[in-house]
UniProtKB/TrEMBL annotation:
SUPFAM superfamilies tied to this protein: S15/NS1 RNA-binding domain
Single Gene Ontology BP annotation: translation
Entry superkingdom: Eukaryota
Protein name: Small ribosomal subunit protein uS15
Family annotation (InterPro entries): Ribosomal_uS15, Ribosomal_uS15_arc_euk, Ribosomal_uS15_N, uS15_NS1_RNA-bd_sf
Length: 152
């Protein structure tokens, strides 16, 4: 009897463990592959330890944009060097909106710029390797995506 109850409890424990692991695992056949998501707080308040004002940050954004940096690069510099986690919390606007209000926004959107850059790199590769069919197909996909984005 004891052997039966022990083996039964072991089987129950294994079933419970399997149920727990399936609850913890992410969706396998869904767009979201895992459980990790961006956890930004809903409170748009400035941290107490940050001593700079909104105008100081805006002036710094203008200076970095005049040097030729893109909005993501500006955000990385502000985050790493100056301790500004989210510019939106400090200034009330995103970096691109701040630059548009001053007339310093880049001419091309960021995603379109990088797609054009990628297509040019693959075209350069195809000049050297004409028989690379995978690269040819990739260029077709990228160019169609560029045309799709150019509509907007």
């Amino acid at each position: 009897m004891k052997k039966c109850s022990i083996s039964l409890t072991i089987i129950e424990m294994q079933i419970n463990f399997c149920c727990l692991t399936t609850a913890i695992m992410g969706c396998m056949h869904a767009p979201e592959k895992g459980l990790s998501h961006l956890a930004l707080s809903y409170h748009c308040s400035v941290p107490t330890w940050l001593k700079f004002t909104s105008d100081d940050r805006k002036e710094q954004i203008y200076r970095l944009a005049k040097k030729g940096l893109t909005p993501p690069q500006i955000g990385v510099i502000l985050r790493d060097s100056h301790g500004v986690a989210q510019v939106c919390f400090v200034t009330g606007n995103k970096i691109l909106r701040i630059l548009k209000s001053k007339g310093l926004a880049p001419g091309l959107p960021e995603d379109l710029y990088h797609l054009i850059k990628k297509a040019a790199a693959i075209e350069k590769h195809l000049e050297r390797n004409r028989k690379d069919k995978d690269a040819k197909f990739c260029v077709v996909l990228i160019e169609s995506w560029i045309q799709y984005l150019a509509r907007f």
